[in-house]
Write a structure and sequence with these properties.
Family (chains A, B): Belongs to the FPP/GGPP synthase family.
Protein name (chains A, B): Polyprenyl synthetase family protein
Keywords (chains A, B): Magnesium, Metal-binding, Transferase
Pfam families (chains A, B): polyprenyl_synt
Shape of chain A: globular
Strand content of chain A: under 5%
CATH architecture of chain A: Orthogonal Bundle
CATH class of chain A: Mainly Alpha
Oligomer: homodimer
Number of helices of chain A: 16
Largest sheet of chain A: 2 strands, antiparallel
InterPro entries (chains A, B): Isoprenoid_synthase_dom_sf, Polyprenyl_synt, Polyprenyl_synt_CS
Number of domains of chain A: 1
Chain lengths: 337, 337
C-alpha cells in the first residue's frame, strides 16, 4: 500500500491538487506545515518542492462522479476527502510501523516528531469529514457515511496488521482479509464516493463499490509482488525490501502456507534472528517463487481484475468512463510486473 | 482538562452507558479491548472494573436535546459521539504529552503500546461520526458537521498546547485561546448537539453553543486551579502536579504576565533545570497566588459562568432544563474550590 501507481487516469488532475491545497490551507499553521511536507509540496524547511504522489484515489472519485452522469466538479469534495483519509493513514501507519522513509524522503514523524505527526493525522481525517459535510454538498451525508465506514475498515485492517506482526504464522485467508480492510476498503469507497455525491441509484454505487473492492485487492497483490521483485525506482524502497522487513505479504503468506519443502525452507530462513544478508534475501525470494507464492499472487491479481471488470458489466455507464475504469483495472496489475 | 467533574447532571446516566458500550462493541476485538480499558470498564487484563468518569459531556448533550423539546433518546447518538471524541482526544493527548497516568491508572499507551493506542484513538473518532451519521438519525448531517468542527478546533488547541510547551513565555490571551479550542469547543458542541439532533431553530443552538463555550472556559479555569490547589482525591493527580510538570496553565500564565516582583520570582523558579523539590513547589504556588494568578483565575471563572447563564436568558427553555443548566454552570466553578 506504500507505492503510488503511476496511473493512466489523469482525470481531473488539474482540479484535484488546487482543491486539496485549498482544504489543507484551512488548517492552522503547525498542522498545515506538516501536511504540506507529507503531501510532498514542501521540503523539511518549508521550501516549495515538486509534488509527488499520483493521486489514484481522487482520480477514481472523479471517474465515479462521471459514471453517475455528474459534471467534473461534482465528485471534487469526495476526491479531496478520500485523499485526506489516505494521507492520514500513511502518516499514522509510518509512526506505528516505525517506517523512517516515505517516497524517498524522511517520514513526517522523523522530521516533526511523533506528537505533531499524530496530531496532523488527526487533523487530516477530521478535515476530510469537514469537506464532505460542507453545507450544500449534494449527497454529503451519504458520502460521509460511506467514507467513515471505509475509514473504520482501514483502521481495523491496520489493527490486524499490527496483530499479525506479533504472530508467527497467519493463514492466506487472514492475509487477504487484512488487505481487503487495509487497502481495498478505501479504494472501494473512492470508486463509489463520486456517485454517492451525485445521488446515483443504489445499484450503480453497489457495482462501483464491488469494482473498487476487487481492484483494491488486485492493487495490494501487485504491490506485494513489487515489494519483492519490483525495482527500487518503481517502489521507492530498497530492492527485496518486504523480505528484509519480513513483511507477511500475500506472496510470502501463500508460499509459507503451500506445505512444500520450499515453504519449510522459507519459514526457517525468515525465522532466523538478526538481519538477513543480501544473498539470503535473494534465496528467500527464490523460495517464495518455487513454493508457488509468486504464481498464486499473479493469478489471484488477474482473477480480481477480471472480477472487477465483470462488476462493471452489471450497470449502464458512459462509454468513456467504462473504458477508463477498464484500463485502470488492467493497469493496476500490469505495472512493472 | 484531565479531571472529570462529579457533576450534578445525572440526566440520562442510565441511557448513556449502555449506548456507549453498544457503540464500542462495534469495534473489532483488539480496539474494543483497549477502548474498554481506557473507558474504565475493564482492568489491564480485561477483567470487569467499576467504570469511572462522570460523563459530563454526554449529560450536556441530553440536556441540550431536552432544551429543544426532544425526548430522552433524541440526543443519545450525540451523547455517545461526543464522549467518543472526548476519549479519543484523551488517548492521543496522553501519548503526545507522555502522561503515564490517567484517573489513578496506567494510561492506555503504557499498557497496550503506542501503536495500538494511536490506532484506538483513530477508531474512536471514526466511530463517533459513524454513530451520528447512521441512516435515519434526524439532524444527523448538521450534528456531524458541528462535531467535526469542534473536533478540528480541539486538535488545533492541542497543536497550540504542543507549540506553547516549546516556548518560554506565552501571553494570557494565547493561553485563553488555547483553552477555548482545546477544552471549550467540545463542551460548546456538547451543549448544542442534542438540539441539533432535534433540528432546533438556529437561535436556540446558537445560545446553547455560547453557553457551552463560556462553561468550557470556566471549566478549564477551575481545572487549572485544582491542578495547583486541588486535593489529589479530587484531581486524581499528585498535589501541586501542574507546577511539578511546569504546565503553562491559566493561573501560572496570569501570574507570569502580571509584571510584579513575584512574577519574576516565579519565572526564575520555573525556569530552573531539573525537578523542583516539594518546598519549592509550595513556594511556586504561593508566588502564583501573590502575583495575582489565583485571584484572576477565580474572577475570570466567575465572569464566564455569569456570561454562560446570561446566554440562557436569550432563549425560551423548559423550566427544569434551565435550572439544570444553571446549576451545572455554578457547579463547574465551585467544585472543591
Amino acid at each position: 500500500m506504500t507505492t503510488e501507481t503511476p496511473s493512466p487516469a489523469t482525470t481531473g488532475r488539474e482540479l484535484i491538487e488546487p482543491a486539496l491545497r485549498a482544504a489543507v490551507d484551512r488548517l492552522d499553521r503547525p498542522m498545515r506545515e506538516i501536511a504540506a511536507y507529507h503531501f510532498g509540496w514542501t521540503d523539511e524547511r518549508g521550501r516549495p518542492a515538486s509534488a509527488s504522489g499520483k493521486a489514484l484515489r481522487p482520480a477514481l472519485v472523479l471517474l465515479s462522479a462521471r459514471a453517475a452522469g455528474g459534471g467534473p466538479g461534482a465528485g471534487l469534495p469526495g476526491a479531496v476527502a478520500v485523499e485526506l483519509v489516505h494521507q492520514f493513514s500513511l502518516l499514522h501507519d509510518d509512526i506505528m510501523d516505525g517506517d523512517r522513509t516515505r517516497r524517498h524522503r524522511p517520514a513526517a514523524w522523523t522530521v516533526f516528531g511523533v506528537p505533531a505527526a499524530i496530531l496532523c493525522g488527526d487533523a487530516l481525517v477530521t478535515l476530510a469529514l469537514e469537506v464532505l459535510l460542507e453545507p450544500g454538498t449534494r449527497g454529503g451525508q451519504w458520502a460521509a457515511r460511506g467514507l467513515t465506514a471505509a475509514t473504520a475498515e482501514l483502521i481495523a485492517g491496520q489493527a490486524l496488521d499490527l496483530e499479525f506482526e506479533r504472530r508467527e504464522r497467519i493463514t492466506l485467508d487472514e492475509c487477504l482479509r487484512m488487505s481487503s480492510a487495509k487497502t481495498a476498503a478505501l479504494l472501494a469507497c473512492a470508486c463509489s464516493l463520486g456517485a454517492m455525491l451525485c445521488e446515483a441509484p443504489a445499484p450503480l454505487t453497489t457495482a462501483l463499490t464491488a469494482y473498487g473492492a476487487d481492484l483494491g485487492v488486485a492493487f495490494q497483490l501487485t504491490d506485494d509482488l513489487l515489494g519483492i521483485w519490483g525495482s527500487p525506482e518503481v517502489t521507492g524502497k530498497p530492492v527485496l525490501n518486504d523480505l528484509r522487513s519480513r513483511k507477511k505479504s500475500l506472496p510470502v503468506t501463500a508460499a509459507l502456507n503451500a506445505g512444500t519443502a520450499d515453504s519449510a525452507g522459507l519459514a526457517e530462513l525468515l525465522g532466523r534472528p538478526g538481519e538477513l544478508p543480501e544473498d539470503e534475501l535473494r534465496r528467500a525470494a527464490r523460495l517464495v517463487e518455487s513454493a508457488g507464492g509468486r504464481a498464486w499472487t499473479e493469478a489471484e491479481a488477474d482473477a480480481r481484475v477480471a472480477s472487477a471488470r465483470a462488476h462493471l458489466d452489471e450497470v449502464e455507464l458512459p462509454d468513456d468512463v467504462r473504458s477508463e475504469l477498464d484500463a485502470l483495472a488492467r493497469y493496476v496489475t500490469t505495472r512493472d510486473r
